[in-house]
Amino acid sequence: MSTDSKVDQDVVTVILEDHRTMEDLFRRMRSIEADRAAALKEFSALLIAHGEAEEAEVYGALKRFRGVDNEEVEHGTEEHAEGNKALLALLEVEDVGSDEWDERLEELVKAVAHHVDEEERTILNGARENVPDERRAELAVAFQKERARQLASDCGSPENVRKIIDG
């Protein structure tokens, strides 16, 4: 997450920055030299805040534009649910760095990497090409506001992740 106070004016750029941060956190969670538990805590909060903000502020708005594939947007929501389930499975492993932890981490990486790749190729490219700059700027503000609200609420806690999964 960018630490400067300026608000990015393109929702596509903001989402891509989060995706790159998630990839960095995956590297830290895989590294035996890193504080893997801290990286997981940071990742959990970001994944939940990001997905919830996309669903609340971005996906619905994008569906109104021609050239943005509505089925891909719906599929993105399904993939968030899959990623959240994989996240909870990892959060429930007590021994960080154990074989079980590593296996569940790889399942999480696989689910999230698949979603990120698909979202970037379909939804975000469609948004960049078909949604006017000013609308993408409005969506960036709304997305960042909702993401910040989520992050302030300890959204990545196992209890909250479970609540989101259970609907």
Task: Note down, in words, how this protein is organized.
With about 170 residues, the protein is an all-alpha fold. About 80% of the residues lie in helices and about 0% in strands. It is elongated. It starts with 10 loop residues before the first helix and ends with a helix. Residues about 1-5 have low confidence and may be disordered.
Q: What is the compact description of this entry?
A:
This protein has 167 residues and is mostly helical. It is built from six helices and no strands.
Strand content: under 5%
Overall 3D form: elongated
Report the helical percentage: over 70%
H/I helix tally: 6
Structural class: mainly alpha
Q: What would the average pLDDT be, to the nearest integer? A: 93
**What is the H-and-E element order?**
HHHHHH
- State the distance separating the first and last CA atoms: 27 Å
- Classify the oligomer: single chain
How many distinct beta strands?
0
Largest sheet: none
How big is the Rg? 16 Å
| Model regions low in confidence, pLDDT < 50 over at least 5 residues | 1-5
